[in-house]
Design goal:
Strand content of chain A: under 5%
Number of helices of chain A: 20
EC number (chains A, B): 3.4.17.19
Organism (chains A, B): Vibrio aquaticus
Number of strands of chain A: 3
Cofactor (chains A, B): Zn(2+)
InterPro entries (chains A, B): Peptidase_M32_Taq (IPR001333)
CATH architecture of the largest domain in chain A: Orthogonal Bundle
Catalytic activity (chains A, B): Release of a C-terminal amino acid with broad specificity, except for -Pro
Distance between the termini of chain A: 61 Å
Oligomer: homodimer
Chain lengths: 493, 493
């Protein structure tokens, strides 16, 4: 067997264990009774150790050296590139550092769950200082291994090929027009009137509505499910994608659009190339591209006037005991495009969301590169919030720098993916509209042309192309903020 | 670390992977969409291979040799005995035979799913001959390894310590009185009148009813769930036990008692000793003892007059739109104790069930011991059915020897567990009644005294004692058919 073939077989073996991890992980979040958690955590930790041991087997180094001498097709070359990247990621850090960071992260995250509610920055800061120090150490080692700056080496985990140079350029562009745009839109919306949902919305009916919308979005129920969990997510494996949502009896708006969002993630997974199953080249390209698909569904399609028309109609007939005025298209459109400057990222609307991300990016970049100390973060947060959204977080840690889970266990470099995703999504839509009658397709109720484009350009490509190649082939240009800007102006002004 | 401690650590490691197998197995049966099956099967096969490799690591032989020289407590000695038994079971067969039997079994079982409906004995017999031959080979190897007859070596997989000598003695006893008893009861019941459920029974309400009954039976919902699957089962792990049922909108009787049955399995699992978790000494004693707990719940408690009173009341208030006469206690009692001679084991009542099992036992014993050929089975089946239940299966293969899945993939030696379980359950009840007011406890709605006895004598014992020791300590005598006989006479005559 060629060395390349051995690497492929080994990767498929690892993918079987990843399959198990994905399913028991979904189970833990969606259906496991609480008393099962200790044994489950032990079993999952054992599985992680096993998967790590497979990624670090000594013979892999030889196989890579040999495989690089073998004659490979273009696709095989891409597979080898991704296999090697994955192998390097798994082997770059000393075991001791991985364990220390995992322990410090668990401790910090666990305490944060209480400390945040108590606005206890002092308590949090004590645990967090260790997480930051270990993350800086991690970034340093990664940086030395691949010749990047420390922060870029962390970015590379989630967004291979992206650098802070390009992020600076993209985000600085956004910063020149976003704050003004937000003000203009808020001014415009201040005179608008709309109805908010009131009364009770049965969760069985909400689920039924969600399933109908998933059907409209051509979710493949032969290869996936919809369930409930405290924190909605998209899990499982490409042949069996598990999305979750959370229902609130007092309103259906958030859960419904949450399902649209997760369906975007799910269809990407369901559409990955089956011929490359079990290989990293057959997996999703990056966190940013993954988010581009969920945001394409949620923001580009889901909040379009044409789609809102379907949503309003489906919701209205599901909740036929409620005030019909709530389900008027115009009211629905307003409900789903309301802009407000506020403190919390996860509750932010499409327009203010990038401000939250850029703020975090600028802080974590400087923190990981050692330009600021972790104790500088609250003040920096406050001044950037003032600057981008006109809000003060002075002394308000829980709605400021302590609001997100990401930093508590050292996931630095992740935040930019959200806004990269929004920009990719806008750029994909602009390109798609050159050949597809998007609104016509949505209005007709048969969205096939839209999904065919996404499947062809994005989903079926897996990770064979680099992110830049993928975006360039799909849209004719590399990523820029212009399409995103035009999309926002057109929708909100 | 002592060799014993190393064995313990190794066993706990294996138990983590068994945990994963149990959860993804439940998932496959209860929630997985059909399109996920291929990838899931591959992942589960990979996991099986891994677990097998852990059971067969070469250093284990040394550890066992050393551990047997170490000074161990009584409980540790029991743990070592069970660890060694498990290790021997995993290592006794050549890999090639395991694979060949697995392939032949899958092929035969898969084809059987179609052939049974077509009454195609000829087609089935072709595949089955290989399964039988490989099972005979397996039995021969097992027999040589532990000095038993071939069939006893198969029995030993499911019911360690039981022999066909003792089964012959138990079952021959039953055969002296069962056929007459069945006739008497059928004669007695022939003049009885009762109402069968008619109309529609909402499955949500059936589920609610099942949950209420599980609560009465003190199922621990912090450590388990109720779900649905085509074939009801009890799965999961002791800290998270997953039972399933199947609802039929046309009646609720079967599903309801099925839930009582699975709850018996579940409470045994939930009550296993936590201090021995991850070790075979902390697992259920045997298939027969497991079945004794489900049948204790279903037959000893569940069909008692006192419990039927609860069931009738709970069902009546759940289905309050139906004819109240259906939920009269007397009617419920008759519904749940109806006796009928029929072809199908899984549909058989408490009284005729042992006849189905004894028939299978006698045939599989002689088949595995090479005293009969697999082509003799249909005629033997017919003559034994005539003898025990007065029914002919001449030419009726699908309701005769082709009705069960067990033999299709070579699970010979399993059937006796069902009737052993029924006998153990009757013997446990007789012993319990010497110190516990069973009917009083059931009538009061607080069944704690019953469960305390079971927990103390059975559940908390795991596999520390041998089956014979366990039964003798719990009941003062070894297993005999007398309590079972008295129980049946008292209930049915």
């Amino acid at each position: 067997m060629s060395a390349f073939k051995q690497l492929v077989t080994h990767s498929q073996k690892i993918s079987h264990f990843n399959h198990l991890a994905a399913i028991v992980g979904w189970d833990q979040a969606a259906v496991m009774p609480s008393g099962g958690n200790q044994a489950r955590s032990n079993a999952m930790a054992e599985l992680s150790v096993h998967i790590h041991s497979l990624h670090t087997q000594p013979q892999l180094a030889d196989w890579f050296a040999q495989a690089e001498q073998e004659s490979l097709s273009l696709q095989e070359t891409a597979t080898l590139r991704e296999l090697k990247r994955q192998w390097q990621q798994a082997n770059v850090l000393p075991e001791k550092l991985v364990q220390a960071k995992s322990l410090a992260g668990s401790k910090c995250e666990h305490a944060w769950r209480t400390q945040r509610g108590q606005n206890d920055w002092q308590g949090f800061e004590k645990n967090w200082s260790e997480v930051v120090a270990l993350s800086q150490e991690e970034a340093q080692i990664r940086a030395e291994a691949n010749g990047l700056t420390p922060y870029d080496a962390m970015l590379d985990i989630y967004e291979p090929g992206t650098s802070s140079t390009s992020l600076d350029s993209l985000f600085n562009d956004v910063k020149t027009w976003l704050p003004d745009l937000i003000d203009q839109v808020i001014e415009k919306q201040s005179s608008e009137h709309y109805l908010e949902p009131t009364g009770q919305f049965d969760t069985q009916k909400q689920k039924q509505l969600g399933l109908e919308v998933m059907k409209l979005l051509q979710f493949d129920f032969e290869h996936g499910r919809l369930d409930e969990s405290v924190h909605p997510f998209c899990g499982g494996v490409p042949s069996d994608v598990r999305i979750t949502t959370r229902y609130d009896e007092n309103e259906f708006v958030q859960s419904l659009m949450g399902i649209v969002h997760e369906t975007g993630h799910a269809r990407y997974e369901q559409g990955l190339p089956k011929s490359l199953s079990g290989l990293p080249s057959g997996e999703a390209r990056s966190m940013g591209i993954h988010e581009s698909q969920s945001l394409f569904f949620e923001m580009q399609v889901g909040r379009s006037e044409a789609f809102i028309q379907h949503l309003a109609k489906l919701a209205g007939s599901q909740f036929d005991q409620h005030n019909p005025a709530l389900f008027a298209q115009d009211n629905f459109q307003k409900l789903y495009t309301r802009v407000k400057k506020d403190f919390i990222r996860v509750d932010a609307d499409e327009l203010t969301y990038p401000a939250h991300v850029i703020l975090r990016y600028e802080i974590e970049r400087d923190l990981i590169n050692g330009k600021i100390k972790h104790t500088d973060v609250p003040d920096l947060w406050d001044s950037k919030m003032q600057q981008y959204l006109g809000l003060s977080t002075q002394g308000n840690f829980k709605n400021g720098c302590m609001q997100d889970i990401h930093w508590t266990d050292g996931a630095f470099g992740y935040f930019p993916s959200y806004t990269l995703g929004a920009m990719y999504a806008a750029q994909f839509m602009a390109a798609m509209k050159q050949s597809v009658d998007v609104d016509g397709a949505i209005l007709s109720g048969d969205l096939t042309p839209i999904f065919s484009w996404l499947s062809d350009k994005i989903w079926s490509q897996g990770s064979v192309l680099t992110t830049d190649e993928l975006v360039k082939r799909a849209t004719g240009e590399t990523l820029n903020a212009e399409h995103f800007k035009q999309h926002l102006i057109q929708r909100y002004l």
